[in-house]
Amino acid sequence: MARAIGIDLGTTNSCVAIVEGGHPVIIANDKGERATPSVVAFTERGERLIGSGARRQAAVNPDRTIASIKRQMGTSWKKRIDGKDWTPQEISAQILSKLRKDAESYLGEAVTDAVITVPAYFNDIQRQATKDAGRIAGLNVLRIINEPTAAALAYGLNNGLPQKIMVYDLGGGTFDVSIIEIGDGVIEVLATSGDNHLGGDDFDERVAQYLLSEFKRQYGADLARDPAAMGRIREAAEQAKKELSGTEQANIYLPYLTQVGGQPAHLEATLTRAKFDALTADLVDRTAGPVQSALSDAGLRPSDLGRVLLVGGSTRIPAVQEKVRALTGKDPSRSINPDECVAQGAAVQAEILSGTGALATKGDILLLDVTPLSLSIETVGGVATRLVERNSRLPIHHSQIFSTTAPFQRSVEIHVLQGERPMARDNKTIGKFRLNGIQRAMAGVPQIEVTFDIDANGILTVSARDLSTGKEQSITITANDRMSDAEIDKAIRDAEMYFGDDSRYREAAEALNDARKLAFDAEKMLSDRTRQMDKPQKKQLKQEVAALVKRTAKLKPEKMTDEDIRAVREAMEQVKAAMDGGADTGASDDKSAF
User: Fold this and answer.
1) Active-site residue (options: 70, 98, 101, 323)
2) Mapping DSSP to helix (H, G, I), strand (E, B) and coil, where does residue 585 land?
3) Are the beta carbons of 430 and 477 closer than 8 angstroms?
């Protein structure tokens, strides 16, 4: 049976893992990196870059580079590049495809099954969007699980002593906190809370704005509308943030950042940890509310916690660690890698669900998660009538009876909401559906049973039944931010097409590079061995080289067809044959150019 992988689809970096010998192992990418930057870029030449290659060129290609796409999951965001509108699901699928291929290269076999993690505070639409991204990437998504839960699973695999732990997860784009109880073969989420718009990106932006103000103070110029300069500034801001986790100050120098008054302008600044802490103090303080909310919902005091686990690269910030100590009265545990534990936990869950490998017999590791936000329906007066409370254990099956508000009403629209506010307008709409064919009756007489089902992935489906007639209808939530099956199928076809284009591009680029190198070697041979070669051989070689040069002169990798590639290779073979004829003279034993 095929192996199943675990994927941490992160805002800044993504990671893939597999279980080997009963232990989760991080799979390095094709560059030997244990984490792949969650960045996708499209070059002017039509090449697609994913990972560190995309990140490196972001400063000089900002309009065609997409980063932090996770923050757009479940929204109507689109980016038009070369006439195509890219959705968050499709961009995320590019990253997932890269991780899948890295896993296949490592394992030496095809990979289709995966567990993918999401922030605990992702709503239904965001979770479905993540699952759709996996489907576009050619993955069978066994389960969507919360990132803090995955981290707890990685920790609990080797630390199964009964205890209650807090997972404080501050990543690149999101913040989650979960209270989790680890028992005998059971890992149960007691409560979760968080902020989907708080993470390392926000810390970077504060430093970037500080550097902008420093440049303006020095030169009187505003760089905010210079995409190339802003790319370099944001890159420097992120690096300074990382340095300040280990040192008291970071020196920032960006030469030739722009021109001011026709002269080159450089940015030089020093950022101390104290200044960094002052710039980001409110961001750190924002983590306190979710921590206190999660503890309250779990019915616990900080003293009841056995451990506090730090997850996510941003938890390396000293001020964040101090905040955790102040909130919990405990030193955070350093027993897990904050960058890798989420992928490791996902791999553990993937191994258990797939029923393969060393953990196949550990199906008694029971993972009990919760829904992060309450689910409601809008009722008369715009009130959000709650059906499912937040932190209810998954899976959930809940039914409630509703009725009509007008006489002889034949249909009703039900507005499904997610959030904690009392009024519908203040919560997130995750779908609307209409039940038709209700029996004619006075207002309040019809009985309409609406059923909410939330699966282990945290994804909601809804059905309805008119109890007076017994007629049952299946209702599909239609949210604008979800992709339809047709859109997903098209995205899958596009992904396959782009994979073919990428393969052709690489093959074409290699053919052109090989041809140009061969032409250079042949011309060098003509120059170095002209006396040892007879006239017919020299004439033939010159003709073949000229034909090769002419064949490749106007070709560009992004526009080459399979026929063009074959023609270039055939022309190369003619040159090689002519060169072999020249080598037969015995003038040299040097074969390095052949």
Assistant:
1) 70
2) coil
3) yes
Angstrom CA distances, 212 to 251, 268, 278, 429, 546, stand at 15, 11, 17, 37, 54
Q: What's the CA gap between 449 and 242, in Å, rounded?
A: 54
Amino acid identity of residue 475, one-letter, is I
């922030």: which residue's tokens? 119
Tell me, what's the pLDDT at 134? Answer: 95
Annotated active-site residue 169? The verdict is: yes
Can you tell me the distance from the alpha carbon of 288 to that of 168, in angstroms, rounded to the nearest whole number?
11
Q: From CA 163, how far away is CA 307, in angstroms rounded?
A: 8
Which of 198, 186, 195, 196 has the alpha carbon at shortest distance from 393?
A: 186
Active-site residue flag, 559: no
Q: Is 268 a catalytic residue?
A: no
* β-sheet bridge partners, residue 4: 113
Query: What was the pLDDT predicted at 362?
Result: 47
Please give the pLDDT value at position 456: 78
Q: Which two tokens stand for residue 255?
A: 């030469």
Q: What residue type is assigned to position 325 of the chain?
A: R
End-to-end CA distance of the chain: 45
C-beta of residue 202 within 8 angstroms of C-beta of residue 11: no
Helix, strand or coil, per DSSP, at residue 337: coil
Q: Give the Cβ contact number of residue 478 at 10 Å.
A: 11
Find the catalytic residue in 132, 169, 378, 481. Answer: 169
Which of the residues 8, 124, 201, 351 is marked catalytic? 8
Grade residue 378 by pLDDT with cuts at 50, 70 and 90.
confident
3-state secondary structure of 510: helix
Using CA atoms, how far apart are residues 546 and 541, in angstroms rounded to an integer?
Answer: 8
User: What pLDDT digit, counting tens, does each position of 537-548 carry?
Assistant: 888 888 888 998
DSSP string, 243-259: HTTTSSEEEEEEEEEEE
Tokens (6 digits) for 228 = 């190339």
Given a contact cutoff of 8 angstroms between Cβ atoms, the answer to whether 180 and 188 are in contact is: yes
CB 172 within 8 A of CB 205: no
Phi then psi dihedrals of residue 307, to 5 deg: -145, 155
DSSP letter assigned to residue 199:
S
Beta-sheet strand order (sheet of 175-182): 307-311, 163-170, 175-182, 186-195, 366-368
Q: Is the pLDDT of residue 495 over 70?
A: no
Q: Check: CB of residue 397 under 8 Å from CB of residue 382.
A: no
> Is residue 147 flagged as an active site residue?
yes
Q: For the ranges 20-34, 461-475, 544-558, which has the lowest average pLDDT? A: 461-475
Active-site pick, 102, 124, 147, 369: 147
Amino acid 528: pLDDT: 82
H/E element, 342 = helix 341-354
Taking only the tens place, the pLDDT of each residue in 427-468 is 888 778 777 888 888 878 888 888 888 887 777 887 778 888
Pick from 319, 316, 321, 317: nearest CA to 338: 316
Determine the 3-state secondary structure of 1 from DSSP. Answer: coil
Q: Quote the tokens at residue 539.
A: 């004439």
Pairing verdict, β 4-8 and 113-118: parallel
Express each pLDDT in 308-331 by its tens digit.
999 999 999 999 999 999 999 999
Residue owning tokens 């779908």: 431
Average pLDDT over residues 38-52: 91
